Task: structure prediction
Amino acid sequence: MHKNNLIAISLIVVACATVTPAQSSGIFGAYRDCMFACRTILIKPDHTFIYRLDGDLFNGETHNGTWQSIGKSLLRASSPEDHTAPIVTQRTSNRHDDFLVTVIEASQATVKGAIVSGLAGNATFKVETSDNGLARIPKCKRFEIQFNGYRGSFVITDAQADEFIVSLTYEQMANWVINQTWLVEGRRLYVALDDGSFDKRYWLDKLSEKDARKIFH
Result:
C-alpha cells in the first residue's frame, strides 16, 4: 500500500478515536415535555445547550449552559450562577447595633429565604430573610445576597447608611443553576434524580428539526 494512503488511514482512525461517545450517538437536537409547564432542551454540537421554559408561570424563559460527555449517551449539564450587581437603596435611620436589610422583588413583594452574608470584623455571618423579607446583620463594609442561582455583592458607599433595600430583578429572581445528568436513549432524554438514578417513566421527546426551529428561532 502506498505510504500516503497509510498516513491518510491513520489520520482517519485517530479522528474517529477522539470522538466522544455523546458526539457519536446522534444526541444533538431539541427535546421537550409539557406536563405542567413546557420545558425544552436544545443540545448543540458545540457543547452548549439552551433550557427553555414556557407556560402560565413562564414566558419563554431561557437558561444557557454547557455539557460534557461522561459516558455513552450520558451528559453532564451545568449553567453558571448570575453574579450581576443587586440594586440597593441606602437609608439612614440611626440604628445602633446592626444593619437592616430588606429584600424585595420587581413587584415590590418581599422575598423570603434570601441569604445575606458577609464579614464583620473577623467573623463571618449568614442570615436568611424572614417572612417579611427582613434580615438583621452585623455592621459591615459589604454584604452578599444569594437567592436560588443568584449571587451578587454590594459595597456600602454611604458611611451613614444603616438600612438597605435590595431590589432583585425578574432575571435575578428567575435564575436557577442547572447541574444535572442527562441520559439520551433513542429519541428520549431522561433527567437524573437527586440520587443519580433515572426514572424511566418520565422523559422528554425529541422534536423534529422543523418543530425545534419554531421554538428556537
